[in-house]
Design brief:
The chain has 147 residues and is of the alpha+beta class. 19% of the residues lie in helices and 27% in strands. It has a seven-stranded antiparallel sheet with strand order 1-2-7-3-4-5-6.
């Protein structure tokens, strides 16, 4: 093998590693657990998630965020329960939806907060029970289900 071929191969591998590192910082894969997002997503579905900030979120987006300490157990969560998947129904400054008004005293969504609901209300633990979600726990937006 010539020195040129060896150098070109090394550069190609380095370039591929760089692309993978960039994608890893921008994308994540999360596994859905529970029934709260049925019929849109089912337990065991793998979602491709684009890491993003609150400013890039829109009403209707399906977001992934760290499970808040809503349950009050104080115990570490197993890895499969680390993330929650819900649909955004209100952003900072939006009026608080009627379904959440009994839990949240404010008339508008607080800054750096979201209102999220599961697509399956009878099986979802969401803003209807616990109020706002802190945008600091946001991982990103679900782009698609992976096969």
């Amino acid at each position: 093998m010539t020195m040129f071929a060896w150098t070109a191969g090394l550069l190609a591998v380095a370039g591929l590693l760089l692309v993978l590192l960039v994608l890893r910082r921008r994308l994540a894969v999360v596994v859905v657990s529970g029934l709260s997002m049925e019929p849109t997503f089912h337990a065991g579905d793998r979602l491709l998630v684009r890491r993003t900030r609150l400013a890039r979120i829109s009403v209707g987006d399906v977001v992934v965020f760290e499970t808040p300490d809503w349950l009050g157990t104080g115990e570490p969560l197993p890895p499969e329960r680390r993330w929650m998947v819900k649909r955004v129904v209100a952003l900072p400054g939006d009026p608080v939806p009627d379904s959440v008004r009994g839990v949240v005293p404010e008339p508008r969504v607080a800054p750096d907060r979201l209102v999220v609901l599961g697509d399956n209300p009878s099986a979802s633990f969401d803003s209807r029970q616990c109020g706002f979600v802190d945008a600091g726990t946001l991982l990103g937006v679900a782009l698609r289900r992976m096969s």
